[in-house]
Design goal:
- The N and C termini lie far apart (37 Å).
- The protein has a four-stranded parallel β-sheet, with helices on both faces.
- The relative contact order is 0.23.
- Strand 4 and strand 5 form a beta hairpin.
- The protein has a single domain, classed as Rossmann fold, CATH 3.40.50.
- The chain has five helices and nine strands.
- It is globular, with a radius of gyration of 16 Å.
C-alpha cells in the first residue's frame, strides 16, 4: 500500500496524541530501522543465534541480541529512527527487552488505497508502485543523509534513493538473519565516509 498523506512522527509516551518531533541537528545521518526481518527474525532456515523469544501483544517474536548490539554501536554514528509498522510499539517493547535506547522517534504511517504521492524529494511524483514507507521516510528525513535498513526494500526504494539529493544508503537484510556483522560493517563504513568527506 502507498500512503495517501505524509506520516506524522510519534513521540514515545504520547501515543494517544502523536505529534511531529523536532528533528535533531543535521550533523549526523539518520538510520531508519525496520523491526521485522532486522531485529525480529523469522523465515525458513532462520539463524537462531544470540537472542530470545518474547510474546509481544500475544505474538511470539525471536529478538536478535546480535542486531541489538549492532544498533547500539551504530547509535554513535547515526540518529536512530524506528521506521517499522510497529510504530510506537517498537519503543514500548524493544528498549527494555534488548537494552536499546529508549525514547527514539518513530514514524507513523498512513495506510489507505493506492494514491499518487506528492512532494517526494527526487522520487517520481504520482508513482503508484512506491513502497508504503517512502512518503513517511522522505518527509521526516528532508535533506539529511540517511541509511535505511529493512528486509523488504524494492525497486521503488532504489529509484527513490538514487534520485535523492542527499547521500542515501539502502541496506537489505534477510529476515532469517537480520542485522548482522556484514550489514553493520557497511553502515559503519558509510557513516564514517560521510564524516571524512
Amino acid at each position: 500500500m502507498v500512503p495517501s498523506e505524509p506520516a506524522t512522527v510519534g513521540v514515545p509516551g504520547s501515543e494517544r496524541a502523536p505529534r511531529v518531533t523536532s528533528r535533531p541537528p543535521a550533523d549526523r545521518p539518520l538510520l531508519m530501522v525496520d523491526v521485522d526481518g532486522v531485529i525480529s527474525l523469522f523465515a525458513r532456515g532462520w539463524d537462531r543465534g544470540e537472542g530470545s523469544f518474547h510474546s509481544i501483544e500475544g505474538i511470539p517474536h525471536f529478538l536478535s541480541a546480535t542486531a541489538a548490539a549492532h544498533l547500539l554501536a551504530l547509535a554513535d554514528l547515526y540518529d536512530l529512527v524506528w521506521a517499522s509498522g510497529w510504530e510506537e510499539r517498537a519503543d514500548e517493547n524493544l528498549p527494555h527487552l534488548l537494552g536499546l535506547p529508549a525514547g527514539l522517534p518513530f514514524l507513523r504511517f498512513q495506510r489507505g488505497p493506492s494514491t499518487p504521492r506528492r512532494g517526494l524529494q527526487g522520487a517520481q511524483a504520482g508513482s503508484l508502485e512506491a513502497h508504503w514507507k517512502l512518503s513517511a521516510i522522505d518527509a521526516y528525513a528532508g535533506p539529511r543523509p540517511l541509511a535505511w535498513i529493512d528486509d523488504a526494500l524494492d525497486d521503488a526504494c532504489e529509484r527513490w534513493a538514487s534520485a535523492r539529493p542527499a547521500p542515501t544508503l539502502l541496506v537489505q537484510t534477510r529476515p532469517e538473519h537480520g542485522l548482522g556483522e556484514e550489514e553493520a560493517a557497511l553502515l559503519t563504513s558509510w557513516a564514517r565516509s560521510l564524516q571524512a568527506g
